[in-house]
Specification:
The protein is mainly α. It contains 18 helices and 8 strands. It folds into 3 domains: 118 residues, Orthogonal Bundle (Fumarase C, Chain B, domain 1), CATH 1.10.275.10; 242 residues, Fumarase C, Chain A, domain 2 (Up-down Bundle); 56 residues, Ribonucleotide Reductase Protein R1, domain 1. Helix 9 links the parallel strand 5 and strand 6. It is elongated and about 100 Å long.
Length: 464
């Protein structure tokens, strides 16, 4: 026998396990079977699943179930992992056996080995604490994995909401600073009536805050867990009051309003609440895509585009054109958004792919959700910190475009009528002369009066 391996047994027979590994036979098989993405499980997901093991041990610490020695050993092993130790021992690829049995056993084996060694035993000898009988007591992959997916989402959700709100705050700050910066609005990408850059940016802030509220509304459904349903939602082989006790312990560990779902079986069949969260993420992603496009358009130039705003230069923009600077942060945000939309599509397909008592697509579904949440959080934070906070407004350019806009003729509707205002607009478009000059030349309105009309319309959206 090589010193690099030990021999363990599972229901399929003997298998070599790396001598220094804290996992066991079933995890070793999964490493061989699933060399798919090269990506190990999400760290938040590992922590969530270990919290379940810890809470289960506490809930099962009652007569004829889990004794004090076993409970203490399991809890202490879990606490070591939750403190950041042994995370490298969670090695199963994200694309693995359906439902996540391999990851569930990875957790069971690592916790069991840590517990047994702490009690004076050795790795791979499960005489006091067994991965299945003790660490997995009263549990099934079928209820622990969907629970871990939901708990992971609860951990990541505040980070995403905070990122969205901080971007909204920055847009609102710019909006307040530029409330009197009058500019031409554009509809159909054509000149329109006057507005202010403040109104434009405040609208971005309002939209993002609304999206953040939609994300927050997804929190409570995720707190309703199917843990305690065991293999098929029946509660088979669970200790007395286990579902309620384990939910209370998880609520204490996580500071969330966690509770058993009214129907434990449903929370293994249906991933509706996960899909609802993914849909809310998709919704904010669509808004972020639109806003990012606007930022790139407003910053286009510097000489031949709109150039109404200037984004901070964060890196050179070309390998051939000296001095070129691109809106890279919002380009990055666009790309991230498109990838997140792809993750949502995958989640949608996997949501409807469950059969009868179980949705076996949960490992990949969870991975797609976690990636979407992390990527979007990081991308929004980066765009906010590296670009929005240093954004500058070219007020002079806004004013130049404003007075060149034929859309100003709309302000004359209530003064001289739609038809006459249309004549002014046509002359402005044909001659290139500003509407203000034509109005003044024709004696329709004094220049100063027209300027006041423009300012009031832009600020108030109405004309007396």
């Amino acid at each position: 026998m090589s010193e690099q391996f030990r021999i363990e047994k599972d229901s399929l027979g003997e298998i070599q396990v790396p001598a220094d590994a804290w996992y066991g036979a079933q995890t070793a098989r999964a490493v061989i079977n699933f060399p798919i993405s090269g990506r190990r499980p999400d760290p938040d997901f590992v922590m969530a699943h270990v919290r379940i093991k810890r809470a289960a041990a506490v809930a099962n610490n009652q007569p004829d179930w889990l004794d004090d020695v076993q409970t203490k050993a399991i809890v202490e092993a879990c606490d070591k992992i939750l403190a950041g130790e042994y995370l490298e021992q969670f090695v199963v690829d994200r694309f693995q056996a359906g439902a996540g049995t391999s990851h569930n056993m990875n957790s069971n084996e690592v916790v069991a080995n840590l517990a047994n060694v702490a009690l004076g035993g050795e790795k791979g000898v499960y005489s006091t604490v067994n991965p299945n009988d003790h660490v997995n007591m009263g549990q099934s992959t079928n209820d622990t994995i969907p629970t871990a997916v939901r708990l992971t989402a609860l951990v990541k959700l505040p980070r995403l909401i905070d990122a969205i709100n901080r971007m909204a705050e920055e847009y609102a700050r710019i909006g307040a600073a530029e409330k009197d910066t009058v500019k031409s609005a554009r509809t159909h990408l054509q000149d329109a009536v006057p507005t202010t850059l403040g109104r434009e940016f405040n609208a971005y802030a309002w939209t993002l805050r609304r999206a953040a509220k939609s994300l927050e509304a997804c929190r409570d459904p995720l707190c309703q867990l199917g843990l305690g349903g065991s293999a098929a939602g029946t509660g088979l082989n669970t200790s007395p009051d286990y579902a309620q006790r384990v939910a209370e312990e998880l609520a204490r560990l996580m500071g969330e309003q966690i509770r058993p779902a009214d129907d434990l079986a449903a929370q293994m069949q249906s991933m509706h609440d996960v899909q609802r969260l993914s849909s809310a993420i998709r919704d904010v992603t669509l808004e972020l895509t639109r806003i990012s496009n606007d930022m790139r358009l407003l910053a286009s130039g510097p000489r031949t585009g709109l150039g109404e705003i200037q984004l901070p230069p964060v890196q050179p923009g070309s390998s051939i054109m000296p001095g070129k600077v691109n809106p890279v942060m919002f380009e990055m945000l666009n790309q991230t958004c498109f990838q997140v939309l792809g993750q949502d599509a995958a989640i949608g397909y996997m949501t409807q792919a469950g059969q009868l008592e179980l949705n076996v697509m949960m490992p990949a579904m969870g991975s797609a959700l976690f990636d979407a949440m992390d990527w979007l959080t990081n991308a929004v934070n980066a765009a906010t910190e590296r670009n929005l906070k240093g954004l500058k407004v070219d007020r002079k350019r806004c004013k130049t475009f404003l007075h060149a806009s034929v859309g100003l003729a709309t302000l004359l509707n209530t003064e001289i009528g739609y038809a006459a205002a249309g004549d002014v607009a046509k002359e402005s478009e044909k001659s290139g002369r500003p509407v203000r000059d034509i109005v003044e030349t024709r004696g329709l309105m004094a220049g100063d009066a027209f300027d006041a009309l423009v300012l009031k319309a832009a600020r108030d959206g109405k004309i007396d």
